[in-house]
Amino acid sequence: MNLHSSGKLFSLLPQNYQVSISSTRVLASLLFSTKTPTKPLSSSDSSTLRRRIEAIRDPRASIVPVLDQWVKEGNNVDKYQLVSLVRLMKDYKRCNHALEVSEWMTGRRFFTLTTEDAAVRLELIHRVRGLEEAENYFNKLSVKLKTKYTYGAILNGCVREKSVQKAEAVMQEMREGGMATSSFPYNILIILYSKTGDLDKIAPLVKEMERNGIDQDKYTLRNLVVASVAASDISGVERILKLTEENPELGLDWKLYAMAADAYLKIGSIGTALTMLMKLEKLMAFREKKAVFSFLLSLYAKTGNKHELYRIWNSYKPSSESMETSYRCMIDSLTKLDDIEGAEKIFEEWESQCTTMYDFRVLNGLLVAYCNRGLLEKAEAAIEKAVQGRTPYASTWHLMAKGYAEQDHIPKAVEMLKRAVNVGRGWKPDPILVNTCLEYLEGHGDTEEMKEFIRMVKN
């Protein structure tokens, strides 16, 4: 990757640049959620309705009959309950159900739609039915409901679809309507231009912010780091970091250092990346380090520095709540550094603490390392010990099948794949692996076993 320091993106950040923080609300989440209710969702009626809706797990099943039945039984329902349910379904990634509640709220109960409600519905329509339907809904909104919230929602949809022309048209309407007054629309346009490669459009945007007195915030700076990385402009990254360090009112942001570290790793500047990671650690509270423990492990693993990797592990060893995820990440990190012995010790440490649920995904990380190195005997021993009194995941047997196939032990691969199919409900094996096994059975003229194998895979 060739680096240059043209400063095209960052000529707008002079050395004496001063940043002031305003009270402008810039978080995208504020534009895409309703105002926080003032009373908790605690009544027995609400929790009962909530439980009924939560019980419908199939995203294709409608929850409208549940809402209708609730009212038919003589139960009360108010807008607060419904707005809370919309938010809950969004949190559960059940956007179809969230949209149904939103539409039922105004269609069946005749509650008044606020501009915040409309913004949420716009986002949901985009996610469930696509951008064109969201645009149709937006165009039909009354003038009263076309505010920075709904404009922000449709702009975000255009950015998600990487539609530069549509996003720019929405932004122009926001300018003309006096709604481009916060950093939010500028921030997401910077994201869009970074993704589409229109990097030359970013500097004019930031200059426009400065001209209109719109403060840059940490999200602006993060997005500019992304843009500078996309432009191979490491000097731009350095300038932004210097800016934040010289302007403490911005609030030093550890995520900026994480992004910078990743940028340096991509160009092979390991020493500088480690410096960024050290600064990152100093900025993070201990609780934050615990929360993003796996993220820290993965970054240090990319440096190839085992000493630092073990330091992070020993300093912020996981709690029981996130134990499996963290152990999986550490095993994966060590195997990438070819430290199989270290990975084995970490696995044994996890296994010794595993008294209830046995997460075979932790074992899978070690099996991948064994199979990739042809250490099938070690893989066999590990899985033989693990299966005592337990049922492995389909993925565990599948890994073994691939390992055997890669070493041309096809009979064993067939056996392992059969085991995977037997325990994997709704699980689909690798078609290349299936074809390898079928070719072996066909070549040996074992017609009956071949038919049985095909039946198992189809079922």
Automatic annotation (TrEMBL):
Signal sequence bounds: none
A GO cellular component entry from the record: mitochondrion
A Pfam family of this chain: PPR
Keyword Repeat recorded: yes
One MF term in the entry's GO annotations: mRNA binding
Taxonomy, superkingdom: Eukaryota
Family: Belongs to the PPR family. P subfamily.
Ranges: PPR repeats: 147-181, 182-216
Protein name (Swiss-Prot/TrEMBL): Pentatricopeptide repeat-containing protein
Record has Repeat as a keyword: yes
NCBIfam families in alphabetical order: PPR
InterPro entries in the record: PPR_rpt, TPR-like_helical_dom_sf
Keywords tagged on the record: Repeat
